[in-house]
Design a protein that fits this description.
By secondary structure, this protein is of the alpha+beta class. The chain has 3 domains: 99 residues; 48 residues, no CATH class; 41 residues. The chain contains 5 helices and 7 strands; from the N terminus they run H-E-E-E-H-H-E-E-E-E-H-H. The strands form 2 sheets. A 4-stranded antiparallel sheet has the order 5-4-6-7, with no helix packed on it. A 3-stranded mixed sheet has the order 1-3-2. Strand 4 and strand 5 form a beta hairpin. The longest helix has 20 residues. The protein is elongated, with a radius of gyration of 25 Å. The N and C termini lie far apart (83 Å). The C terminus is likely disordered. One zinc ion binds next to helix 2. InterPro entries: HMG_box_dom_sf, SprT-like_domain, SprT_Zn_ribbon. This is SprT-like domain-containing protein. One of its GO terms (biological process) is DNA damage response.
Length: 220
């Protein structure tokens, strides 16, 4: 497809526009780096370089969709000579691309692929999750930044319903139970509380109960 993009646009994008695989690009599927160099006659030469994440772009459909998105950035920069992210000029290029290739899916503003990581750490309190390519998170020491809940490790294996399976059989932990029992009352304790605030209150309360539990009870 790249060849045909180039053929259809011979007058526009340079045929030697670098397209490079990058295995360290992990936050986005692709990126278009734009440069402007002053040449000896004082004029400016614009160039672009597209990098694709080999970790995220792992099938041909993603390659096609990411590449056409990034080439629209390159066209915006080199041909239309403007910047401006996913603004009107970039959008116009996506319409042209979609006109030229009606068979491809609509070009979206962001590469919203679920980044396929082998391991997923999910907070048992608020379900916030982070992906890792290795077992790099120490779940005994690191707690959730949103609610201080405990992380649970999931390996990217799916059960028969297509849901990711926990690496160890799930046992509800004390904090998760505490959240379940007290979420409603904490939410009502103040007006307009966001989920994050409720979780903060709950984790403080939970910590307090742990402390009070630790104190030996007085006998009368
Ligand atoms: Zn973009
Ligand atoms: Zn959490």
């Amino acid at each position: 497809m790249l060849k045909s993009i180039r053929e259809r646009n011979t007058a526009v994008l340079p045929a030697d526009l670098p397209i490079i695989w990058n295995n360290r690009l992990r936050k986005t599927a692709g990126y278009c780096y734009n440069r402007r160099i002053k040449s000896s006659d004082g004029s400016f030469v614009r160039s672009s370089r597209v990098e694709l994440s080999s970790k995220i772009v792992d099938n041909s459909a993603r390659l096609r969709d990411t590449l056409v998105h990034e080439l629209c950035h390159a066209a915006t920069w080199i041909i239309s000579e403007v910047t401006g992210g996913h603004g009107p000029t970039w959008k116009r290029w996506t319409y042209r691309a979609m006109e030229a290739f009606p068979e491809i899916p609509p070009i979206s503003r962001c590469h919203n692929y679920d980044i396929e990581t082998k391991y997923k750490y999910k907070c048992s309190g608020c379900n916030y999750s982070i992906g890792r390519h290795s077992k790099s998170l120490d779940v005994e020491r690191k707690v959730c930044g949103i609610c201080c809940g405990k992380f649970e490790l999931f390996v990217n294996k799916k059960n028969d319903k297509g849901k990711p399976m926990p690496s160890t059989p799930r046992t509800p932990n004390a904090f998760a139970l505490f959240v379940k029992e007290n979420y409603g009352s904490a939410k009502k304790s103040k007006e307009n509380l966001k989920h994050k605030d409720v979780m903060k209150i709950l984790s403080e309360q939970f910590a307090a109960t742990k402390i009070s539990n630790a104190i030996p009870e007085e006998r009368d």
